[in-house]
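During the no-cost extension, the postdoctoral fellow (Dr. R.K.) reprocessed legacy sequence entries with the updated structure-token encoder. One reprocessed record is reproduced below for audit purposes.
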Amino acid sequence: MPGFDIESFRGNFTGGAKSYLFSYIPMIPTGGSGDALSYLVNSTSLPANTISDVPVTWQGFDFKMAGKTEYSPWDVVFRVDKDAVIRQNFESWQRFIHDPTSNVYSSPNEYMMDQHVTLLNDSGGEVCTYNLIGAWPSVISDVPLDYTSTDLAVFTVTFTYQYHTMSQVSYDQ
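Re-encoded structure tokens follow.
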């Protein structure tokens, strides 16, 4: 068992991933994708998943076995640019999915877009990339406005997606 003291910790801890070192470039089917939009990303997370349990009863005892993998919705917080183009892009995407005035729906292969979020190391190299397959914006949050605040306006886009994969790039780039 390793020593339970500060010197042991200091000697064995080589650093950790920084939560502010990530890259996400929004991919939007209605023409709003590109590197310029990545500068409007305020925060996000690496996506989560859960393996549900399936109880199997045997002689009055519930034995839990692994069930299906469930992928949680993924949130990205965006800064609103001075012309609100980023928000308009996401609202156009939602209208492309379903136009409420004509009640026309697009087909899934037209509105689903793969999204990619990358964890970076201290020198900007890629550590790993999560690929969210078949994503679309299911929720676009409100934009809080406040006369007493000097903060930039932000809003959250919640993506629903089919599943995600993780590609590990390198430990020492």
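The radius of gyration is 21 Å. The chain has a mean pLDDT of 90. The remaining legacy entries will be reprocessed before the final report is submitted.
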